[in-house]
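Handout, section 3.2

Students often ask what a structure token actually looks like in practice. Rather than define it abstractly, here is a full record for Ribosomal-protein-alanine N-acetyltransferase. The first block is the sequence as you would receive it.
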Amino acid sequence: MIGSVEPMRVEDADRCAELEAVLFPTDGPWPASAFVDELRGPHVRYFVVREDDRRAVGYAGIALLGKGDDTESEVHTIGVDPAAQRRGVGRALLDALLHEADLHGGPVFLEVRTDNEPAIELYRRAGFDIVGTRRRYYQPSGADAYTMTRPAPTTRGGHP
């Protein structure tokens, strides 16, 4: 069973930066200050999953962009502590992001490393499709990324 999904707080920034360094060591992991800056943004939502000891084991963020007919959302990041992977933490975080996106309206976009099969499968199960490839997207490693998108709720036949 996973812990609770909660809004990220400034106090979570150090833990999220610690996880970034473990998860993305060759792709410019975000420092704590980057998370703090993101939390100050008016159009972003960030979440963490906490275990019973209140320690964050995963984090995720999304930008809610545009207004009216020009709305869209962009997943900024999802990261899960390796010790907590394959337990539904990533899916719970993605569900929280997609709930925010559906309230906002419009399609959702994200980039994912082309070699990250577990994440690609997670996104596919959530309704995303690969729509392109960005060569050397991740720096400094130079890894390629797929661009994936999930249509707006109304074009999927659902309702926000």
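Discussion prompt for tutorial groups: The first strand starts at residue 4 and ends at 7. How would you have guessed this from the sequence alone?
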